[in-house]
Amino acid sequence: MEIEAEAVRQSHEQQVLECAEKEVETSRHNEQLTKRLKETERERDSHAGAIRRMLEEAETTRQKHEVEVGRRPSKGQGSEPEGYWKVAHDSAVKHQQTAESARDKQAQKRSHDTYAKEKRLLMEEKAVLERDLAQKVQDNTKLEGKIEEAVQARLSVEGRVKELERDLEARTQALTTSMERREGLEQRSGSEQGSIERWLEFALTTGQISSVQYGEPLTARDGYWTMLQQ
After folding, report:
1. Which of 30, 102, 116, 210 has its Cβ near the most Cβ atoms within 10 Å?
2. Are 136 and 19 in contact (CB under 8 A)?
3. pLDDT band at 228 (very low <50, low <70, confident <90, very high)
4. Contacts for 44 with CB less than 8 Å, ≥ 6 apart
5. How far apart are the first and last CA of the chain?
6. What share of the chain in percent tops pLDDT 70?
7. What is the pTM assigned to this prediction?
8. Average pLDDT over residues 124-153
9. Cβ–Cβ under 8 Å, residues 23 and 133
């Protein structure tokens, strides 16, 4: 059980390190995404400023052309009305400005669409990273719960082992006491038996008792056990 708890603890530490590394990587990636987003915004603003400058330059050029054409003498002779070239020039300039404005709007729209697409992709990637991080945190919480359960189980097992050790110690002490008492009784019994055997030997030798008084067998040792049986 202790080995299993240690393995769970090491696995938990490894996953915590992986989660920390993932958080650092996610933070670094978010910083990169934020930097790219700011760069895209600056690029968009730069495009918008360039477009404004182009429009301002076109407006300035148009005004210069108007002033210049307004100063030219009329080239119409006979069938050409007065100011014919000015009207034609104004029409050409207006047509050119309309085309440039359309191109500028398309370029601005493409820039805006590109910015919106990149921003959407960045936000989606950020959402995926946040979900992954939340899942890692949830897994980490579950793993911490399992580790706590393993620790509690280990403490319970250690408590039971201590109880068994105390019980074994008490049983060993009781067995030791019993063996000491048994040895004492055996020594005492051996001493008493020796005394009785010596007395029987003496009594048989001196004729104080008959060898057939207690029946067969006739030895002192067997007579001792015969007396005990009677």
Report:
1. 30
2. yes
3. very low
4. 111, 112, 115
5. 62
6. 64
7. 0.32
8. 83
9. yes
One-letter amino acid for residue 13 of the chain: E
DSSP 82: T
What domains does the chain contain, in order, with CATH numbers? 2-72+86-174 (1.10.287)
pLDDT the model gives residue 81: 44
Question: Three-class SS string for 175-229?
Answer: HHHHHHHHHHHHHHHHHHHHHHHHHHHHHHHHCCCCCCCCCCCCCHHHHHHHHHH
CA distance 167 to 24: 53
Q: Residue 52 has which token pair?
A: 């404004």
146 half-sphere exposure, CB direction, 13 A CA radius: 16
pLDDT confidence of 220, banded at 50, 70, 90?
very low
Nearest Cα residue to 130 out of 223, 23, 11: 23
Spatial distance between the Cα atoms of 36 and 126, rounded to a whole number of angstroms: 13
CB neighbour class for 83 (10 Å; exposed up to 12, middle 13-18, buried from 19): middle
